[in-house]
Known about the structure:
This protein is globular. It has six helices and twelve strands. The strands form three sheets. Strands 1, 4, 5, 6, 7, 8, 9 and 10 form an eight-stranded mixed beta sheet that branches. The chain has a two-stranded antiparallel sheet with strand order 2-3. It has one domain (25-225): Rossmann fold (3-Layer(aba) Sandwich). The chain is α/β, with parallel strands linked by helices. Helix 1 packs across helix 2 and helix 2 (48-66) packs across helix 3 (101-107).
Amino acid sequence: MHNGRKKDSCDRSVTNNPAFENERMFVLPQGSHLLSLMTILRDANTNSTLFAETTERVGDQLIAAAESTNVVSPTGTTYEGIRHMTPVCGVSILRAGASLENAMRRGYTGPLSFGKILIQRDEETCLPTLFYSKFPPNIASQKVIILEPMVATGGSACAAIDVITEKGVPEENIMFVNILASRRGVKSLFNRFPGIRLVTAAVDEDLTSNNHINPGLGDFGDRFYGTNDP
């Protein structure tokens, strides 16, 4: 687990405060390469082409972290490695979650399938509504990696996990892969589902009055798909 510098009450940027994390959460090490990529994503002047390319590069790091597994060597030493044997279902929360599917396909060479969930948040009430879901028939016997770039309040994320657990998937078999989360969103996830795992590139401290991540990076789907470009 990576430990970042101590934050003061006036610092509202990315946090890796170990008091905030738990053993089922992993924040990517905040090295210069990752921070340079996150700066591109956060920059309001980044066009959709560069935004999408940068998302792919951050996604590769997230999927690599999600695949790690610890084994014990013959000398009794713990070794962190990769094992692509378990059937995995990548579940995209549409539409933004689909942006991480290519990274999933590149990074996981074991048995892989995909599911889809369409959940939309009411901008006035901030409550999520499920419109559509489609999963492989054997999802209950698979590890599930939920793909969702942004977690603000955690409402849509929790709604998606509800749908997946209703299909018979245990919490312990669910991992949430995320580019940017808010402190509140992470707390909501683990309060509702303490057994899941979370892999994220960054955690921001605040939400705006409209429950958008602050400082954040704007509307991820609009920026990735270019629907906000002139």
